[in-house]
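Hi W., the S-adenosyl-L-homocysteine complex you wanted:
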Amino acid sequence: MRFHVLTLFPEAFRIITEYSIIGRAVERGLISVEATDIRQFTTDRHGTADDYQFGGGPGMVMKPEPVFAAVDAALANIQTEERERTPIALTSPQGHVLNQQLVDEFAAAPGVVIICGHYAGVDERIRTGLITHEVSIGDYVLTGGELAAMVIIDAVSRFVPDVVGSEENVRDDSITSGLLQHPLYTRPAAFRGMAAPEVLRSGNHAEIERWRRRQSLERTLKLRPDLLATAALTNSDRAYLASLGWDGGDV
Ligand code: SAH
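Structure:
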């Protein structure tokens, strides 16, 4: 999986490429993160990548020419048959809010081009004439798209085979599974008067699974009841939820 990031601040991406799970995935060649400086594609000697907005108003706007040229250069490195399947994503608070469905869609692609806006934003022609996706990471506004791009890269990389250890099934995680995950405990069994549940130390796998499923359902009902409407639930899940007062989502 190749991530091509177009940014005014390529050094920022060292935060993810040099540490922890994503850093190791880069090192092992499972993913690559190429952060390209948009300024390389400016044509004047000052390297002007942004300009005042037509119509007046505060804040600089990222110019279209260097961004289009940077995307052309990124695509030129991708084989023709893969090019059509490569999303060109603009980070933007106006976009589709990143969710599991979009993460799965990107993870299935051979690579993703991600454009990081900055300042007041980008020239509208980048939105209308260049990108295939506009992606937000939530309903708030960041100063630039770099952190948003890193969030996208991190979330998508977890679904690239072997990036996350095989002992951890990423499909069992909260949200991805459709529910919130059960609570996790490790040693010590008793800590500051708080004990880890006896059942988890019982060695009885059927009981442990039952406890975990019930905790997961209970927690989802309490914190994210909206998820229950689309979660894959068995009859026994439904019966358990009903015993907790769930109305089956009918409102
Ligand atoms: N004036 C713009 C916001 C610009 S914020 C507007 O009102 O729509 C500057 C840049 O930060 C954006 O171009 C985008 O790349 C990034 N950004 C800000 N908030 C974001 C969010 N919630 N998700 C993804 N990217 C965001």
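The CA atoms of residues 21 and 165 lie 9 Å apart.

W.
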